[in-house]
Amino acid sequence: MDFVEQLKSSVDIVQVIEEYVRLRKSGPTRYVGLCPFHTEKTPSFSVNATHQFYKCFGCGACGDVLKFVTELERISFYEALKLLSERFGIPMPKRSEYSDPETKLRAALYQAHELVEQMFRSNLESSIGPEARSYLGKRGVDPAVAREFGIGYADRSGRSVVRLLESRNFTPEQMEASGLVLKRDDGTFYDRFRHRLMFPIHNESGKVIAFGGRALDPGEQAKYLNSSETLLYRKSYVLYNLHRAKSGIRQSGRVVLVEGYMDVVGVYASGVHEVVASCGTSLTSQQVQSMRRHSDKIVVNFDPDAAGASAAERSINLLLDEGMHVRVVELDGGLDPDEYCKQRGASAYVEKVNGAKNYFYWLADRARGKFDMRTAEGRMAGFQFLLPAVQRLSNRLERLAVVNDVAGYLGVAAGPILENFRKAAGDRREKAVRPEPESVRPVERLLLNLLLVNVEARERLVPELKRMHAVERFTTRKIFEALFALDEAGESVAFSQLDTRLDENDRALLVSAVLADGTSDSSPSLEQGEACLRALENSEHESRRSQLKARVKAAERDGNFAEALRLAEELARIERE
Ligand SMILES: [Zn+2]
Q: pLDDT tens-digit profile of 40-99?
């Protein structure tokens, strides 16, 4: 068996997908959840354990476990193989046939990041690290926490990373592509990070793909500096700490979003493990989609200053657009999340997060500060300020209820506004759903489900089916022909084998026959299969009889009595059978 097949047969697609998407069991072998490939509020993403296949009935995404990992992690096929074989401890044969130049470069970059992370870590604990250690001490970061987060130190020399990578024989091209060093005009390199506290940034599967560096010199202009974008690191897709936070997010049923590395570290150390940050960019819709795969509830806790508040405002609108349920934490005393945890203690912070208010009350408070609520104009302006966020709610009833609440909160007469609002907002529609392909008859559906998983049924039924004309009238005719061909060639007849031998239209038919809602969840029995064959035979008989009857009548009408008699005899013979 080729390695790809071997891997696929020893890895469970449900287990793999569950690491990225919350799935709910909806039948003995079927799971459903919100699609990670498009924005939706009701689950149309389904995973089938029998056929080891996923399919979204909203956007049409479908495939096997390797396709899922490739698309979700945005990596090559070879890397998906490697990732799964490492995770499940299946030794992978050393062959380069799957490896293209880009994949090779990516592998080198992962290795470079691993080496550099180790060096930064040991710098921190060595004789060159006292300033960095004392900064961590001042911020109240325990050495054990620093180790858990892989925090390190980039020294002042500006040559350590370059030397390390050169000594490990990285090529100049690889060094330049790493984003960790910069090139001078004369072609030589120097380190991007100097005298900074270093935070490794991981991808969702926990590999280091970039660094964020905090300046230790107060005179330094850029307080924070991040790796440049590379093959591994696309800022807008990465959430800091997501790989560590995802199990906490599942357990608590919410994401806590903060602004910076230190906030994440402080909040996480306080026991709130569901915390992430969008570092080095303002929040993007790709980042929201990554968190939404784990929970659609979010608590936003940005810095209390003006910049933090307007970042929160922007983020709230984006979060609502992506269908998240948003609450906002406000910490008193002008403290940021990290300071609050240190000064007031972990349990006080947890209480604040648990008591976070629905986002529109927070926005209403913002409006109160911005506009003069003593005048009718001011109140109206405040209300206008809130409207965009309310309009983003896709549920009409919820929208109207919120308008009412907020109007009351601000002391504005809701009546006329509601009237306008009803007209303006109309009914928003969710994204159009792709039309399903032609529907497949229950008989065809049952037979396909049976033949794909049951060897005995194939041995007994395929020879009979091949003789029957009924198959020629199946919507799924081509699928059956491909299945017969596989069976004849003695190859394994599994969903994925069949899938690769079909064109797009028949593939969609196969998916709808085998995975669609409404298909029975337990595999059909051989007896059911035999009953189907008998039903098909009967209907074949029935159609031959009615054809003959029609021909007898036609012959009589034409006065061709000899022919009519011959056909009538044939009809009688069939009926005796
Ligand atoms: Zn989808």
A: 888 999 999 888 999 998 888 989 999 999 999 888 888 898 899 988 888 887 765 556
| Cα 254 to middle of ligand 1, angstroms | 22
Question: Which single residue is written with the structure tokens 């890895």?
Answer: 11
Task: Name the token pair of 14.
Answer: 């449900």
- The rounded Å distance from CA 41 to ligand 1 centre is 11
* Spacing, Cα 46 to ligand 1 middle (Å): 10
Predicted confidence (pLDDT) per residue in 148-194, tens digit: 999 999 999 999 999 999 999 999 999 999 999 999 999 999 999 99
CA 509 / ligand 1 centre spacing (Å): 17
Cα 43 to averaged position of ligand 1 atoms, centre (Å): 9
Computed over its alpha carbons, how large is the radius of gyration of the chain? 32
From ligand 1's centre to the CA of 559, what distance in Å? 63
Burial code (b: 16+ CB inside 10 Å, e: under 16) for 91-113 equals eeeeeeebbeeebebbebbbebb
Question: Distance between CA atoms of 444 and 367, rounded to whole angstroms?
Answer: 61
- Residue 87 alpha carbon to ligand 1 centre in Å: 26
Distance CA 541, CA 557 (A): 24
pLDDT, residue 29, reads: 86
Q: Report the separation in Å between the CA atom of 44 and the middle of ligand 1, taken as the mean of its atom positions.
A: 7
pTM of the predicted structure, to 2 decimals:
0.73
Q: Which two tokens stand for residue 150?
A: 């892989």
Say how many Å lie between the CA of residue 405 and the centre of ligand 1: 34
**Separation of 492 CA from ligand 1 center, angstroms?**
29
Nearest C-alpha neighbor of 75 from the set 56, 99, 45: 99
Please give the distance of CA 478 from its chain centroid, rounded to a whole number: 33
| Of the listed ranges 233-237, 295-299, 405-409, the one predicted with least confidence | 405-409
Any idea of the CA torsion for 465, 467, 473, 479, to the nearest 10 degrees?
50
Alpha helices (runs of H) in 126-256, residue ranges in sequence order: 130-138, 143-148, 160-167, 172-177, 242-252
* pLDDT averaged over every residue in the chain: 86
| C-alpha to C-alpha distance for 498 and 484, rounded to whole angstroms | 10
Distance 243 CA to ligand 1 centre (A): 23
- 3-state SS class at 493: coil
What is the torsional sign of CA 448, 454, 455, 456? negative
Q: How many CB atoms lie within 10 A of CB 58?
A: 21
CA of 258 to the centre of ligand 1 (A): 28
Residues 264, 276 contacting (CB under 8 angstroms): yes
Task: Measure 65 CA to ligand 1 centroid, in angstroms.
Answer: 16
Q: Token digits for 214?
A: 């905090």
In the reported structure, the alpha carbon of residue 77 is separated from the centroid of ligand 1 by a whole-number distance in angstroms of 21
Sheet holding 62-63: strands in order across? 24-25, 30-33, 45-48, 53-56, 62-63
Ligand 1 centroid, distance to 432 Cα (angstroms): 11
